[in-house]
Amino acid sequence: MLKVASFQIADSIDIKQVQSNFMKTVYYSDNDELYYQIAADQFIYVFKYGIVCFLNHTESAIADFIKFISPYCKNILPTKLSEEFEIETSAPHIKFGYNKIEITSADIESLRIIMLNVSESVALDHYSQQTNKLLEETNRHTETLGHNGKLAISDKNLKKIIGRTLNLKNRILENLYIFDSPDETWEDENLKKLDVGLKKTFDLQVRFRDISEGLGIVKENLELFKDLLQSKSSRTLEWIVIILIFIEVTNLLLDKILKLK
User: Fold this and answer.
1) Most buried residue among 12, 84, 117, 233 by CB atoms closer than 10 A?
2) Where are the domains of the chain?
3) How far apart (Å, rounded) are the C-alpha atoms in residues 246 and 243?
4) ∠ CA(98), CA(82), CA(56), 5° rounding?
5) Is residue 19 within 8 Å of 33, Cβ to Cβ?
6) Residues ≥6 apart with Cβ < 8 Å to 113
7) pLDDT over threshold 90, residue 38
8) What angle is formed at CA 183 by the lines to CA 182 and CA 184, rounded to 5 degrees?
9) 149/151 Cα distance (integer angstroms)
10) What is the per-residue pLDDT across 80-139, written as a single tens digit (0 to 9) for each?
Protein backbone atom coordinates (compact mmCIF):
# COMPACT_ATOMS: atom_id res chain seq x y z
CA MET A 1 0.00 0.00 0.00
CA LEU A 2 1.38 3.37 -1.05
CA LYS A 3 0.21 6.63 0.49
CA VAL A 4 -0.09 10.02 -1.22
CA ALA A 5 -0.28 13.21 0.85
CA SER A 6 -0.70 16.57 -0.88
CA PHE A 7 -0.51 20.00 0.81
CA GLN A 8 -1.38 23.53 -0.29
CA ILE A 9 1.30 25.43 1.63
CA ALA A 10 1.37 28.83 -0.15
CA ASP A 11 -0.05 30.86 -3.02
CA SER A 12 2.99 30.03 -5.15
CA ILE A 13 6.41 28.36 -5.07
CA ASP A 14 9.53 29.50 -6.92
CA ILE A 15 10.29 26.39 -8.96
CA LYS A 16 13.70 27.58 -10.15
CA GLN A 17 14.91 28.25 -6.61
CA VAL A 18 13.75 24.84 -5.42
CA GLN A 19 15.48 23.07 -8.28
CA SER A 20 18.70 24.99 -7.64
CA ASN A 21 18.78 24.13 -3.95
CA PHE A 22 17.24 20.66 -3.64
CA MET A 23 19.88 18.22 -4.85
CA LYS A 24 17.85 15.11 -5.58
CA THR A 25 17.10 13.20 -8.77
CA VAL A 26 14.61 15.11 -10.94
CA TYR A 27 12.56 12.75 -13.06
CA TYR A 28 10.51 15.52 -14.70
CA SER A 29 10.75 19.31 -14.65
CA ASP A 30 9.44 22.38 -16.43
CA ASN A 31 8.57 25.95 -15.45
CA ASP A 32 5.54 24.77 -13.46
CA GLU A 33 6.49 21.44 -11.89
CA LEU A 34 9.28 19.41 -10.33
CA TYR A 35 8.89 15.66 -9.95
CA TYR A 36 11.60 14.13 -7.75
CA GLN A 37 12.39 10.47 -7.23
CA ILE A 38 13.80 10.20 -3.71
CA ALA A 39 13.94 6.38 -3.57
CA ALA A 40 12.50 3.41 -5.48
CA ASP A 41 9.02 4.03 -4.06
CA GLN A 42 9.37 7.59 -2.75
CA PHE A 43 8.55 10.72 -4.73
CA ILE A 44 8.03 14.45 -4.17
CA TYR A 45 5.99 16.55 -6.61
CA VAL A 46 6.32 20.35 -6.37
CA PHE A 47 3.91 22.69 -8.19
CA LYS A 48 4.38 26.41 -8.73
CA TYR A 49 0.79 27.07 -7.59
CA GLY A 50 1.82 26.40 -3.99
CA ILE A 51 1.37 22.66 -3.63
CA VAL A 52 3.77 19.93 -2.52
CA CYS A 53 2.78 16.28 -2.91
CA PHE A 54 4.50 13.34 -1.22
CA LEU A 55 4.44 9.63 -1.91
CA ASN A 56 5.48 7.25 0.87
CA HIS A 57 6.99 9.81 3.26
CA THR A 58 6.80 9.92 7.04
CA GLU A 59 5.22 12.90 8.78
CA SER A 60 8.63 14.08 10.00
CA ALA A 61 10.10 13.87 6.49
CA ILE A 62 7.15 15.85 5.14
CA ALA A 63 7.56 18.50 7.85
CA ASP A 64 11.30 18.77 7.14
CA PHE A 65 10.78 19.30 3.41
CA ILE A 66 8.02 21.87 3.92
CA LYS A 67 10.35 23.75 6.27
CA PHE A 68 13.15 23.54 3.68
CA ILE A 69 10.95 24.83 0.87
CA SER A 70 9.31 27.66 2.87
CA PRO A 71 11.88 30.36 1.90
CA TYR A 72 10.94 29.80 -1.75
CA CYS A 73 7.20 30.25 -1.12
CA LYS A 74 5.06 33.36 -1.59
CA ASN A 75 2.26 34.07 0.88
CA ILE A 76 2.54 30.98 3.09
CA LEU A 77 -0.90 29.88 4.26
CA PRO A 78 -1.59 29.89 8.02
CA THR A 79 -3.71 26.76 7.61
CA LYS A 80 -2.52 24.16 5.14
CA LEU A 81 -5.16 22.38 3.10
CA SER A 82 -4.34 18.73 2.51
CA GLU A 83 -5.65 15.49 1.04
CA GLU A 84 -4.54 11.89 1.42
CA PHE A 85 -4.96 9.09 -1.08
CA GLU A 86 -4.05 5.41 -0.98
CA ILE A 87 -2.66 3.31 -3.83
CA GLU A 88 -3.05 -0.46 -3.91
CA THR A 89 -0.61 -2.06 -6.35
CA SER A 90 -0.58 -5.37 -8.27
CA ALA A 91 -4.35 -5.34 -8.80
CA PRO A 92 -5.83 -7.34 -11.71
CA HIS A 93 -7.24 -4.11 -13.20
CA ILE A 94 -7.64 -0.42 -12.39
CA LYS A 95 -10.32 0.21 -9.80
CA PHE A 96 -11.29 3.63 -8.48
CA GLY A 97 -12.62 4.05 -4.94
CA TYR A 98 -13.18 6.66 -2.28
CA ASN A 99 -9.72 8.05 -1.36
CA LYS A 100 -8.18 4.93 -2.85
CA ILE A 101 -7.17 3.44 -6.17
CA GLU A 102 -6.08 -0.02 -7.24
CA ILE A 103 -3.60 -0.21 -10.14
CA THR A 104 -1.95 -3.05 -12.01
CA SER A 105 1.60 -1.72 -11.62
CA ALA A 106 3.24 1.13 -9.72
CA ASP A 107 5.30 2.51 -12.58
CA ILE A 108 6.72 6.00 -12.25
CA GLU A 109 4.36 7.62 -14.78
CA SER A 110 1.23 6.13 -13.22
CA LEU A 111 2.30 7.38 -9.80
CA ARG A 112 2.94 10.82 -11.27
CA ILE A 113 -0.57 10.96 -12.79
CA ILE A 114 -2.09 10.01 -9.43
CA MET A 115 -0.06 12.61 -7.52
CA LEU A 116 -0.96 15.26 -10.10
CA ASN A 117 -4.71 14.66 -9.77
CA VAL A 118 -4.62 14.55 -5.95
CA SER A 119 -2.74 17.86 -5.98
CA GLU A 120 -5.23 19.49 -8.34
CA SER A 121 -8.02 18.37 -6.01
CA VAL A 122 -6.32 20.19 -3.13
CA ALA A 123 -5.78 23.27 -5.31
CA LEU A 124 -9.49 23.33 -6.17
CA ASP A 125 -10.32 23.27 -2.44
CA HIS A 126 -8.03 26.27 -1.98
CA TYR A 127 -9.51 28.24 -4.88
CA SER A 128 -13.03 27.30 -3.81
CA GLN A 129 -12.41 28.77 -0.36
CA GLN A 130 -11.11 32.00 -1.88
CA THR A 131 -14.08 32.22 -4.25
CA ASN A 132 -16.53 31.70 -1.39
CA LYS A 133 -14.89 34.53 0.56
CA LEU A 134 -15.35 36.88 -2.39
CA LEU A 135 -18.98 35.74 -2.75
CA GLU A 136 -19.65 36.39 0.93
CA GLU A 137 -18.06 39.83 0.71
CA THR A 138 -20.06 40.92 -2.35
CA ASN A 139 -23.26 39.37 -0.96
CA ARG A 140 -22.94 41.55 2.16
CA HIS A 141 -22.97 44.63 -0.04
CA THR A 142 -25.92 43.40 -2.12
CA GLU A 143 -27.88 42.77 1.11
CA THR A 144 -27.07 46.31 2.29
CA LEU A 145 -28.19 47.62 -1.09
CA GLY A 146 -31.44 45.68 -0.76
CA HIS A 147 -32.16 46.90 2.79
CA ASN A 148 -31.01 50.53 2.58
CA GLY A 149 -31.32 51.28 -1.11
CA LYS A 150 -27.72 52.45 -1.30
CA LEU A 151 -24.28 50.95 -1.63
CA ALA A 152 -22.01 51.08 1.43
CA ILE A 153 -18.64 50.69 -0.27
CA SER A 154 -16.01 53.19 -1.37
CA ASP A 155 -14.52 53.33 -4.83
CA LYS A 156 -11.12 52.33 -3.41
CA ASN A 157 -12.47 49.24 -1.62
CA LEU A 158 -14.41 48.24 -4.73
CA LYS A 159 -11.20 48.37 -6.77
CA LYS A 160 -9.48 46.17 -4.16
CA ILE A 161 -12.19 43.50 -4.49
CA ILE A 162 -11.99 43.71 -8.30
CA GLY A 163 -8.23 43.26 -8.08
CA ARG A 164 -8.51 40.21 -5.81
CA THR A 165 -11.12 38.66 -8.11
CA LEU A 166 -9.02 39.17 -11.24
CA ASN A 167 -5.89 37.82 -9.52
CA LEU A 168 -7.74 34.69 -8.39
CA LYS A 169 -9.24 34.10 -11.83
CA ASN A 170 -5.86 34.52 -13.51
CA ARG A 171 -4.16 32.11 -11.09
CA ILE A 172 -6.81 29.46 -11.70
CA LEU A 173 -6.61 29.73 -15.48
CA GLU A 174 -2.82 29.81 -15.44
CA ASN A 175 -2.14 26.98 -13.02
CA LEU A 176 -4.78 24.28 -13.30
CA TYR A 177 -4.94 21.66 -16.01
CA ILE A 178 -8.42 20.38 -15.25
CA PHE A 179 -9.39 20.09 -18.92
CA ASP A 180 -5.92 19.08 -20.09
CA SER A 181 -4.01 15.86 -19.66
CA PRO A 182 -0.24 15.34 -19.56
CA ASP A 183 1.31 14.62 -22.95
CA GLU A 184 2.19 11.10 -21.81
CA THR A 185 -1.49 10.16 -21.64
CA TRP A 186 -1.89 10.71 -25.37
CA GLU A 187 0.73 8.06 -26.06
CA ASP A 188 -0.35 5.46 -23.49
CA GLU A 189 -3.92 4.17 -23.29
CA ASN A 190 -3.54 2.94 -19.71
CA LEU A 191 -2.27 6.34 -18.52
CA LYS A 192 -5.15 8.05 -20.31
CA LYS A 193 -7.67 5.72 -18.63
CA LEU A 194 -6.03 6.40 -15.28
CA ASP A 195 -6.08 10.18 -15.75
CA VAL A 196 -9.71 10.31 -16.94
CA GLY A 197 -10.84 8.03 -14.12
CA LEU A 198 -9.09 10.13 -11.46
CA LYS A 199 -10.61 13.34 -12.80
CA LYS A 200 -14.05 11.75 -12.41
CA THR A 201 -13.22 10.34 -8.98
CA PHE A 202 -12.24 13.77 -7.66
CA ASP A 203 -15.04 15.58 -9.60
CA LEU A 204 -12.38 17.97 -10.85
CA GLN A 205 -14.33 19.37 -13.80
CA VAL A 206 -17.55 19.79 -11.79
CA ARG A 207 -15.72 21.59 -8.99
CA PHE A 208 -13.87 23.75 -11.51
CA ARG A 209 -17.21 24.80 -13.07
CA ASP A 210 -18.62 25.61 -9.62
CA ILE A 211 -15.67 27.94 -8.99
CA SER A 212 -16.07 29.53 -12.44
CA GLU A 213 -19.78 30.12 -11.81
CA GLY A 214 -19.02 31.61 -8.40
CA LEU A 215 -16.50 34.01 -9.90
CA GLY A 216 -19.06 34.86 -12.59
CA ILE A 217 -21.57 35.90 -9.89
CA VAL A 218 -18.89 37.97 -8.16
CA LYS A 219 -18.06 39.64 -11.49
CA GLU A 220 -21.73 40.53 -12.10
CA ASN A 221 -22.04 42.02 -8.60
CA LEU A 222 -18.87 44.06 -9.02
CA GLU A 223 -20.03 45.41 -12.39
CA LEU A 224 -23.31 46.48 -10.76
CA PHE A 225 -21.43 48.15 -7.88
CA LYS A 226 -19.16 49.93 -10.34
CA ASP A 227 -22.11 51.26 -12.36
CA LEU A 228 -23.85 52.48 -9.20
CA LEU A 229 -20.73 54.26 -7.95
CA GLN A 230 -20.14 55.84 -11.35
CA SER A 231 -23.76 57.00 -11.41
CA LYS A 232 -23.33 58.44 -7.91
CA SER A 233 -20.12 60.20 -8.94
CA SER A 234 -21.83 61.61 -12.04
CA ARG A 235 -24.69 63.00 -9.95
CA THR A 236 -22.23 64.50 -7.49
CA LEU A 237 -20.31 66.12 -10.35
CA GLU A 238 -23.55 67.50 -11.79
CA TRP A 239 -24.45 69.08 -8.46
CA ILE A 240 -20.98 70.60 -8.16
CA VAL A 241 -21.36 72.14 -11.62
CA ILE A 242 -24.86 73.46 -10.74
CA ILE A 243 -23.57 74.97 -7.49
CA LEU A 244 -20.63 76.61 -9.26
CA ILE A 245 -22.95 78.06 -11.90
CA PHE A 246 -25.28 79.29 -9.18
CA ILE A 247 -22.38 80.98 -7.35
CA GLU A 248 -21.19 82.59 -10.61
CA VAL A 249 -24.67 83.87 -11.47
CA THR A 250 -25.13 85.16 -7.92
CA ASN A 251 -21.83 87.05 -8.11
CA LEU A 252 -22.84 88.63 -11.42
CA LEU A 253 -26.18 89.73 -9.98
CA LEU A 254 -24.52 91.18 -6.88
CA ASP A 255 -22.06 93.10 -9.05
CA LYS A 256 -24.91 94.61 -11.08
CA ILE A 257 -26.87 95.52 -7.97
CA LEU A 258 -23.83 97.21 -6.45
CA LYS A 259 -23.21 99.17 -9.65
CA LEU A 260 -26.82 100.40 -9.72
CA LYS A 261 -26.40 101.77 -6.21
Assistant:
1) 117
2) 2-221
3) 5
4) 75
5) no
6) 182, 184, 185, 191, 194, 195, 198
7) yes
8) 90
9) 7
10) 899 999 998 888 888 988 889 988 888 899 999 999 999 999 999 998 888 888 888 887
